[in-house]
Design brief:
Helix content is 94%, strand content 0%. By secondary structure, the chain is mostly helical.
Length: 171
């Protein structure tokens, strides 16, 4: 009977891991779309279209990242229940949760910067807009790098945790 309970808990953790992985892949895909939008901007010079497109993509990334954070929180709770508060598995999930929250905050900050730059486009001359755009582009690069690193890290830990959960369930 205990083995069945362990396997059920293991499948729950696996579900959270799958949700985190799916959200992470979606964030990476949106990051690629953001890079494409930036490349189009560089080719056309249409700042307004770029900023509007960037804002939309960032909003989508934020929603996906919120899903990743939610899954990480649920996974952490399941791991605490299964392995105990101070286990290695729980510590790894805490780290991933902290990274996911950090990435979310970075994306939200970038969206605020993009929104401010869009607002400034309507109220400023070309030099001010160009300066704002440079700042926003710099922040976009940071967010993109962080999203890629988070996706890679989450995938590696999720795979390791899934194997450990299955092994633990078989014991």
């Amino acid at each position: 009977m205990a083995t069945i309970k362990t396997k059920l808990e293991a499948s729950g953790v696996s579900s959270y891991r799958s949700q985190m992985t799916a959200a992470s892949k979606a964030v990476k895909t949106l990051g690629a779309e953001l890079r494409q939008a930036e490349a189009e901007y560089k080719a056309t010079g249409d700042q307004a279209a770029y900023m509007a497109q960037k804002s939309g993509i960032l909003q989508q990334q934020i929603e996906e990242q919120k899903r990743a954070v939610e899954s990480a929180e649920k996974g952490l709770a399941a791991m605490k229940k299964q392995y105990g508060e101070n286990s290695t598995q729980v510590m790894e999930w805490r780290t991933k949760l902290a990274q996911a929250k950090t990435q979310l905050t970075t994306m939200q900050t970038e969206l605020r910067s993009t929104t401010a730059a869009l607002d400034a486009m309507g109220n400023a001359d070309g030099d001010d807009v160009a300066d704002d755009l440079k700042d926003v582009t710099k922040e976009a690069g940071k967010a993109e790098t962080a999203a890629d690193e988070l996706g890679t890290a989450m995938g590696g830990v999720a795979g390791k945790l899934d194997r450990e959960t299955i092994i633990k369930g078989l014991d």
